[in-house]
Amino acid sequence: MTSTEILQQLKTLGMPSIKSVLLKHGIQEPLYGVKIEELKKIQKKIKEGHELSLQLYRTGIYDAMYLAGLIAEPEKMSAKELQEWVQLANAPVLYETTVASVAAESKHGLELAKKWIASKEAGIASAGWATLADIVSIKDDSELDIPMLKELLGKVAATIDNSPNRVKAAMNGFMIAVGTYVKELNSLAKQTAQKIGKVKVDMGDTACKVPFAIDYIEKAEGKNAIGKKKKTARC
Fold it and tell me: Per the confidence metrics, is the pTM higher than 0.90?
């Protein structure tokens, strides 16, 4: 399938009710309102396609950009292309899910994440923290820079209160990921979460809630899931 054919299919699959929900969750126009399950059906047909994913993402159409992340080949993504993706992103789910997961699975994830969390643009900073969370969820602890992660937990504790909404949410997600997926830092992550307390984020006109990190990590402990890695960051 070509990008033009896919866009035509996405247009026919769009639903006003889904579009309305997406708009409430901060998705920007243009978008068609295609259900994620429909995007995944297209993904199954295409499987993967580096150039096609780049073409779809560059359309600026949300549904196509999300699909681009599903069919991307992270190992083929250059740092320049990932930087382009984060610059073109214009919604929380693109920054914190699409860009973050593809970056985490690429060979440039850590380098870019460290760069992005220092950005003054909230979306880019949130993408950085989400990328770090995805990295710790899929990489073996032996591959992780434990001292750096300790420093980042300290950075979260020191700066989260004065950070923008989406950055707060992404920092909270990073703290949860470290506590859940990195055995050595489980206790430190819980201590950090206890120090910070429940993170308050304005989620707009939605039912979304930011999980209390301590509760989330302890729930994982109850399932004996601490340190169990995911196969992929993308879903």
Answer: yes
For the residues of the chain, what is the DSSP string, one character each? --HHHHHHHHHHH--HHHHHHHHHTTPPSS-----HHHHHHHHHHH---HHHHHHHHTT--HHHHHHHHHH--GGG--HHHHHHHHHH--SHHIIIIIIHHHHHHSTTHHHHHHHHTT-SSHHHHHHHHHHHHHHHHHS-GGGS-HHHHHHHHHHHHHHGGGS-HHHHHHHHHHHHHHHHH-GGGHHHHHHHHHHH-SPP----SS---PPPHHHHHHHHHHTT-TTPPPS-S--
The CA distance from 208 to 189, in Å, is: 23
Count CA atoms closer than 13 A to 95's CA, side-chain side. Answer: 25
Give 34-73 pLDDT, tens digit per residue.
999 999 999 999 999 999 999 999 999 999 999 999 999 9
Q: Which residue ranges of the chain lie beneath pLDDT 70?
A: none
